[in-house]
Amino acid sequence: MTGKPKIALYWCSSCGGCEESVIDLAEDLLTVTAAVDIVFWPVALDFKYKDVVAMNDGEITATLINGAIRMGEQEHMAKMLRKKSRLVIAHGSCAHLGGVVGLANFYRREDLLSRLYQEVPTINNPQGILPQLETIESGRKVKLPDFHDTVKTLDQVVEVDYTIPGCPPTPELIKEAMMMVLEDRLPPRGSVLAEKKALCDTCPRRDSKPDKLRITEFKRVYETEWDPEKCFLAEGIICLGPATRGGCNARCINANMPCRGCFGPTDDVRDQGAKSSSFLASIIDVTDKEALKKIVDAIPDPGGLFYRYGLASSILKGKMTRGRS
Amino acid sequence: MAERIGVYVCECGPNIKDAMDLDEVVTFVQGLENVVLTKAFGLLCAQEGQELIGKDIKEHDLTRVVIAACSPKEHEKTFRQCLEKAGLNPFLLQIANIREQCAWVVKDKSLATDKAKAIIHAAVRRVAYHEPLEVKEIACQPHALVVGAGMAGISAALTLAQKNRKVYLVEKLPCIGGKVACYEDVFPSLECASCILDPILDEVLHNEHIEILTLTEVQEVLGFYGNFLVKVTKKARFVDTETCIGCGACLETCPVTVKNEYNEGLDERKAIYIPYAGALPNVAAIDKKHCLRWQGEACSACREACPFGSITYEDTDQVRQLRVGAIVLATGFDLFDPARAPQYGYGKVEDVYTSLEFERLVNSTGPTQGKIVLRNGQVPEKIALVHCVGSRSGKFHEYCSTVCCMYLLKFAHQVTRQLSGVSILGFYSDLCLPGKEAQGFFNKISQEGNIQWLHMKEPDSIEITQADGKTLIRFTDVHGSPREVTSDMVVLAPAMEGARDAGAMAQIFDISQGAGEGFFAEENSQIAPVSTAIEGIFIAGCAQGPKDIQSSVAQGQAAAGRILSRLVPGEKLALEPVTAEVDEDLCCGCKLCVGLCSYKAITCDNLKNNVAINKVLCRGCGTCAAACPSGAIKAHHFTDTEVSEEIRGLLRQG
Ligand SMILES: Cc1cc2nc3c(=O)[nH]c(=O)nc-3n(C[C@H](O)[C@H](O)[C@H](O)COP(=O)(O)OP(=O)(O)OC[C@H]3O[C@@H](n4cnc5c(N)ncnc54)[C@H](O)[C@@H]3O)c2cc1C
Ligand code: SF4
Ligand code: SF4
């Protein structure tokens, strides 16, 4: 035992990008690893489940969990790690808000399963068997993790102490979060470890935003050529910057793409998607019904656009389903 | 959240009691979180009911109160006062409307009982999150703004000018008096216009309570009755009004000559000018558009000529903020442009004039010193007076302009008085002579001179052309026969319309206008003719519709009377306590809210990159809070928590 703080990293329903964002710390990763003992990180290091179970409660200083919770096994792991850790940090949009995987909440469990295991053209499943909790394989009973009804955010399953937002978070934010833990200068529990204000505050195009924003037409990026210096909204391109927490270094804006909201809402907003549609609605500058319909119809997938990252954490959660009924 | 909530369920006579099972409702409410006291009562709004609540608040240390009774529109005020008397902030109350929204509309008793439970549950959950709000007061502004210094505006200003009260009289021209100041005589008295007007203008000019702002226009209006903030721009006159005595020395030396719009373009003036002899205040003004100094030349002829050193080329336009409690719009009228109806030959036939042009022609301070002459200087022998030009017409204005018959009779009188032997042709299709003086005036004038009345079939059955140097008038008479006469001079009576810039004014003041004619819309044409839909903004004179001096004066005084009766100096004005507030730490400066506030209460600080809401201007509509993408704006009394708790209460109870 070195006496260094113990850190664990785990992934649930995620794409792996958040793991990659840790690797993106580059040289800084070495600084961090020199200061801590990593005790669990399935993606990179060979520690076993039983090693962690054997630890004392609260023995791990901090655990970063990325990914949303969809499977029974993920819920189990989250709860186990919660017990073993002093701090649980939700790492990335999926753990924070449900993320892109949370969009599955627009569909019911049965519909998802039958689509995936029975309908997609590449599936070969003549008997139409759906995943079971238990099966007999070579005479042995095999258990499979449960597939929950909905996708949940990490804090809907266990208590979360801090959140590093982003899809994925920037290496800077991860490093800063680690330093906060190590130097014991964490903000109040429950904080999201990024800016307090929305992205517009630090947006490089801020000064080009007109005093009175009015929109008469929504344009999609492939439909238009836009001024790479000018506020997207001023050009009629939907940007969720005003409704999204800042701290991302305006990565998308700097790549000349509008904000899609991965840092989630600011502290005082409950539902980023509802807020986004409400702020956009309030700057539409037509009153004629037909014209209004046209403007609104120019957003082909409002659910997917406004709730791209936040569906699982929204007021809607999983209550609105699409497709078959 | 540990609150001590008292819930009172009103029976409202049989109204609520008979519509639901009140015992069941009370039992249900008793079990709700934070509720420490539940009582059903006969008539809560009665004295005993109010006393009971007051007593309970003290005895049971209630921190919140829910009244399950009628609509908040009915008694919210009553119960708020009741809380206040008992020492509880009045906003710690929530009304659960179980009468209009339940007892009266749900027929089935058990459904009504369930619904009442849900409504009360919602109120109980919500009220726990209410915050105490403070009703702030500001002193009401007793001062008034009058826009337009014609007869109507001046009458309003003089009536308003009293102790402890200041009146700002804003006029866009360099002189006051409006159209009437350009007339020689006025009907029906036929007194000389300046004899009537000058003493009044003098009174206005010397009244210590009236500040006249000439060459001034309103840019922006914020606020509400009792507290308007008005931004005006006073254009530079370049002549010091204190020292200039209107001697006219400058006019002679100025090298620039332009058409004189104050004489309806019938003569010329200089770039430094006095609109017409006798214009008040009698002070010159420089017309920047034509003055050589603003064309890059080094002229200073007027400064050199002025014996009093009154020329101030250094003047600049001044923006001023006026704080007033009420506003009278008396921007008057302009005439329909007769060139829009080519049949009248205006602008093409030489000696066709509008009535306002004729007023100048016949005026002793006008371009011909009052001599009625043709453009070639000859004296006319025949003068045609044409009624209803653009009025009472299917094509232009449906309405009658009210004063044209009368002033054309006045013209007939003036012509007869000056030119003996002249013959007058009156082209009319109907005469408008209402009231106690008009018919007598008509009788008198028709006997006086040589007037031939030509009765047309329709108001516009007429065509005026130039043929062989003569002015030819073809018309269809009342029997349908085509007829033809010639005349030396034609005077048209074009319809009265709202002032040219009335549209812009209507936007600035947020009031409505009649379609096409430009008059401001009154609140109610019969019983509220001088008020508008916006409280504290009044209209008077021809800005409201065509009328004569008498009615314009009456409206000016009426508007002033309405203001005097409510805007009492020293009185306090309660501000809206339910307002919105910005959290500076959250506002990202996206400015989305700024343009959405109808009351212009939000301003942006571009340096600090955030916005602020003016508490005095905010009316708590909540628009900004709904739009703020950062959740930085909180609408007090309708916070997200309050509203969502209310919804939860409604939904969670079966
Ligand atoms: C040819 C003619 C002859 C008439 N003769 C008579 C008569 O003999 N007897 C009679 O009783 N009635 C007569 N009338 C009617 C009379 O002119 C009106 O009743 C009277 O002028 C109405 O006064 P007012 O103050 O409403 O409007 P106005 O006289 O039009 O005055 C309005 C004032 O507001 C100013 N103003 C306009 N817009 C603005 C702005 N945006 N900001 C600041 N100031 C502004 C104007 O410059 C003007 O000074 C006659 C009308 C006409 C057309
Ligand atoms: S609530 Fe907001 S939008 Fe409404 S009046 Fe106040 S500041 Fe303006
Ligand atoms: S909408 Fe909200 S974030 Fe944007 S400027 Fe207004 S208060 Fe600030």
Summarize the structure.
The complex is a heterodimer of chains A (325) and B (654). With 325 residues, chain A is α/β, with parallel strands linked by helices.
Write the layout of secondary structure elements.
The complex is a heterodimer of chains A (325) and B (654).
Chain A lengths: L5 E6 L5 H7 L3 H9 L1 E4 L8 H5 L6 E7 L2 E3 H13 E7 L1 H5 L11 H11 L14 E4 L2 E4 L3 E6 L9 E3 L6 H12 L68 H4 L17 H12 L5 H9 L4 H5 L19
Parallel strand pairs in A: 1-2, 1-3, 3-5, 5-9
Antiparallel strand pairs in A: 4-8, 6-7
Helix pairs in contact in A: 2-7
Chain B lengths: L4 E6 L3 H4 L4 H9 L4 E7 L5 H13 L4 E6 L2 H14 L7 E5 L1 H5 L5 H19 L9 E3 L4 E4 L3 H10 L6 E4 L14 E2 L4 E2 H14 L3 E4 L2 E9 L2 E8 L14 H5 L3 E3 L8 E3 L1 E2 L11 E2 L14 H5 L12 E7 L1 E4 L3 E3 L16 E3 H7 L20 E8 L14 H15 L4 E6 L9 H11 L2 E5 L6 E6 L2 E7 L5 E6 L1 E6 L1 E3 L3 H8 L27 E3 L9 H18 L5 E3 L5 E3 L19 E4 L4 E4 L9 H5 L5 E3 L4 H13 L2
Helix pairs in contact in B: 2-6, 3-4, 6-17, 7-15, 12-13
The complex binds flavin-adenine dinucleotide (FAD) and iron/sulfur cluster (2 copies).
Count of DSSP-assigned helices of chain B? 17
Mean pLDDT of chain B: 95
Distinct ligands: flavin-adenine dinucleotide, iron/sulfur cluster
Sheet bearing the most strands of chain A, described? 5 strands, parallel
Low-confidence regions of chain B: none
How many beta-strand runs of chain A? 9
Class by alpha and beta content of chain B? alpha/beta
Topology, number of strands of chain B: 34
Alpha-carbon distance between the termini of chain B?
23 Å
| Spatial order of the strands forming the largest sheet of chain A | 2-1-3-5-9
Model regions low in confidence, pLDDT < 50 over at least 5 residues of chain A: none
CATH architecture type of the largest domain in chain B: 3-Layer(bba) Sandwich
CATH class annotation of the largest domain in chain B:
Alpha Beta
CATH class group of the largest domain in chain A:
Alpha Beta
CA radius of gyration of chain A? 22 Å
Strand-residue fraction of chain A?
A: 5-15%
